[in-house]
Amino acid sequence: MTASYPATRMRRTRATAWSRALHRENVLTPADLVWPLFVTGGQGVEEPVASLPGVSRWSLDGIAARAKEAVALGIPCIALFPNTAADRRSDDGKEALNADNLMCRAIKAIRDACGNDIGVLTDVALDPYTSHGQDGLLDRDGYVVNDETVAVLVDQAVNQAQAGADIVAPSDMMDGRVRAIRMALEMAGQHNVQIMSYAAKYASAFYGPFRDAVGSGGLLKGDKKSYQMDPANGDEALREVALDIAEGADSVMVKPGLPYLDVVRRVKERFDVPVFAYQVSGEYAMIEAAAAAGAGDREALVMETLMAFKRAGCAGVLTYHAPLAARLLGA
Ligand code: PBG
């Protein structure tokens, strides 16, 4: 009997560390990371978020310190989310338009601390400012009205840009908001302020800890299904992305992250646009819970999931694990 050998041995290139390094198809660097941070009032305040172990809300001094830490770690961009004081939340969310609100003051604190060494991404949506926790304005039946909401989001985005935001990121899922925001930014002379649209944002069960962090969770009545996408849909995500590109988005986001990597891949294959994904709060909490339960190694879980985003085609990932990942990458 003649010996039989496999025609191809896939294991040959995997046998040694140097060979695995040589054949590696994707790389993750700190420059792929965007670090989301929660802002709160006061001075010298750090409030741990119970449902996000290891994540805190920081007052402005702490936010500036985190921004410096990001620069030192090679993280190019941070995303800001305010926990607005209860007495500044209202039906119409008008605190979003206050030029001296927590968000605007945080942008300026970062600029004072870091100059232009870091990008500041700001969320455009009304949920941190409304007394009902929805991302927009409600009609009498509690329906989030589109065009009236867009008019407010436009002013919110210009307010953030004028405070010094580099990237405004509409996360509201109203129709037509990207074009309206782009036009308003141009008219305000903010030609270089980018728009990263949350183009394919799903009505997800993975946002719970975030809503705790910005204080909107307890306020929210009902759900966000009349504007955020149905998790069953993929083709619809491509239509959303096509519209946002046509309306002037510089980059697009898919959110949540890991459960929607198929959407990332489809967007990447269809469009020549930078695609980002948001590894959201519930995903972070899931990894932390798994590690705490001894179900997996925390650092390995973090790095494997982040590499999966790169493999799927992401230009970058918004992740609460950004500083840990940057450290593990040797920054
Ligand atoms: C709000 C917004 C949400 C997130 C980012 N922007 C929550 C929501 O839509 O209810 C979620 C981020 C996360 O879960 O980490 N417009």
UniProtKB/TrEMBL annotation:
Pathways involved: Porphyrin-containing compound metabolism; protoporphyrin-IX biosynthesis; coproporphyrinogen-III from 5-aminolevulinate: step 1/4
Please report the organism this UniProt entry assigns to the protein. Croceibacterium soli
One BP annotation, GO: protoporphyrinogen IX biosynthetic process
Description of how the protein assembles with itself and partners: Homooctamer.
Q: Which residues are responsible for catalysis?
A: K201, K255
Which keywords fit this entry according to its UniProt record? Heme biosynthesis, Lyase, Magnesium, Metal-binding, Porphyrin biosynthesis
Q: Which GO terms describe its cellular component?
A: cytosol
Assigned EC number = 4.2.1.24
Sequence positions that bind Mg(2+): E240
- Lyase: present as a keyword of the record? yes
What Pfam families does the entry give?
A: ALAD (PF00490)
Q: Name one GO molecular function term.
A: porphobilinogen synthase activity
Q: Which reaction does it catalyse?
A: 2 5-aminolevulinate = porphobilinogen + 2 H2O + H(+)
Similarity comment text for this entry? Belongs to the ALAD family.
Name the NCBIfam families on file. Answer: PRK09283.1
| Protein name as it appears in the record | Delta-aminolevulinic acid dehydratase
Which EC class, in a word? lyase
